[in-house]
Amino acid sequence: MGEVVEMFYENGFSNKVCNDTITTTTTTNSSILNVNHQDCCWFEEIIDDDLKWSFALNRVLHKGTSQYQDIALLDTKHFGKSAEVDEFIYHECLIHPPLLSHPNPKTVFIMGGGEGSAAREVLKHKIIEKVVMCDIDQEVVDFCRRYLTVNQEAFRNKKLDLVVNDAKAELEKRNEKFDIIVGDLADPVEGGPCYQLYTKSFYERILKPKLNENGIFVTQVCIYIYIYLPFAGPAGIFTHKEVFTSIYNTVKQVFKYVLAYSAHVPSFADTWGWVMASDQPFSISAEELDNRIRDRINGELLYLNGASFLSSATMNKTVSLSLLNETHVYTEEDARFIHGHGVAYNRL
């Protein structure tokens, strides 16, 4: 086993400089893991009491604590900076299905989305006239605008109205309505700032009245806010009952037509879920979706096309039955919360 030269812990990360070969032996299935590297720096997320997800790091680009959350912008060896290798899967699935399903979307309100990726995808649509991005955390917005170069053009776009405020308060005070409202929010964590934005009362009393006729609401369920290495998503075979089915059922209490869909996101270590809702039916073919992608969007999408979107709305038997049989309605008094947090870890 290689000698550990230096070890220290700082703000939840472990940094260890190692030499020679590190060998880890386990008795389970007689497996042996050999790792040969000079800089051993790992970031770990606790997915459940008996499940962890670790990332080898190139470097930590930013660490800090804002008024609302701990912040870490990480450059990982496998997924790059801010999961840049596959974040397009999540953001294309969040943004383009509602915009492509709408006959003529002009205005979009994004709740959260402080890193700018959701706005980036919205602004690919030629017919969009105005995007309001409302994030509660000024520090997150500031450092993402500085470090995430892929989104800098979106932040400079004149169609983007960037607002730092609580999304609930911002929607309440605005007189205007929107064609699309997007929930690109942090997890519903107990004591956190976002869980009220998943409740029936919020959807019914505040959000829905701010949609135009034919308006569409879409929300992801849910993303972990260690900027931006996500917590394992809750639409998988083992995780979908945490909040996914509850939020789906809650949205069904407010809108006539509700569509759940999912996709595997490698850096999320699970299948991820989205819920799209409207009082108008979603009736669009794969061919028409492809036509709208061609006609409306500047540039190429990397993940989504008509066939893949329609197939993403077909759930496996277990998840389908759970969605069908869910009775829980998400309220302030009876909320479901995601648990788990990022901690330091060094693998020896």
From TrEMBL:
Per its UniProt record, what Gene3D superfamilies does this chain match?
Spermidine synthase, tetramerisation domain, Vaccinia Virus protein VP39
Domain PABS span(s) in chain numbering = 40-279
Name the CDD domains on file.
AdoMet_MTases
PROSITE patterns in alphabetical order: PABS_2 (PS51006)
Domain of life from the UniProt record: Eukaryota
Tell me yes or no: is Transferase among this UniProt entry's keywords: yes
Instruction: Write out the entry's keywords from A to Z.
Output: Polyamine biosynthesis, Transferase
**Reaction catalyzed:** S-adenosyl 3-(methylsulfanyl)propylamine + spermidine = thermospermine + S-methyl-5'-thioadenosine + H(+)
Provide the active-site residues from the annotation: 184 (proton acceptor)
According to its UniProt record, the EC number is 2.5.1.79
EC class: transferase
Q: Give the record's family classification.
A: Belongs to the spermidine/spermine synthase family.
**Name of this protein:** thermospermine synthase
Q: Which organism is it from?
A: Xanthoceras sorbifolium
Upper taxonomic lineage: Eukaryota, Viridiplantae, Streptophyta, Embryophyta, Tracheophyta
